[in-house]
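In full, the data.
>
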Amino acid sequence: YNGDHMSMYGINAGIPKTLVKYLIECEAQNIAQYSKALNEILNTEISPELLPPDAQGKIAQKTQELIGPYLLHDFFLYYTIRFGYDPKKTFALAVTTFKQKYTPAQIKKYLTLFLKRFFANQFKRNCMPDSIKVGSVSLSPRADWRMPSQASVKQWLDF
């Protein structure tokens, strides 16, 4: 919680984790002198962990094992925030979009977890440092996003 909030500027506030990987991949293909280092970054699992890797170079916290794929979370975030879709519609879109990759039961599990975590962690977004709005979605309280910290997820879970 504290690490992201100590900075003076939140450069990633409007950039989803999956998009960051695509941006790095693009740069790795376009700038030969940095491609080795950028590919090493791409091959490292996304993690908010600030601890150094273990003796074997492994990251201890594997967030996607706990919360589900960032691909789904970014999808849920986009359709919930950008278009204001309710969970039923977001779920239906996700089932259609990811039918080759995830079962409806997996999608429902991860959407439920996403919604619980999204509402429970609003207090973190309320005290974010200033940030830029890069795309059409930003969770900065100084951009488009407004949500009280005490908002309840209860009515959102009935889908």
Notes: Residues 104-120 form the longest helix (17 residues). The chain has a mean pLDDT of 83. The radius of gyration is 17 Å. The helical segments are 2-5, 17-30, 35-42, 63-67, 70-82, 87-97, 104-120, 122-126.
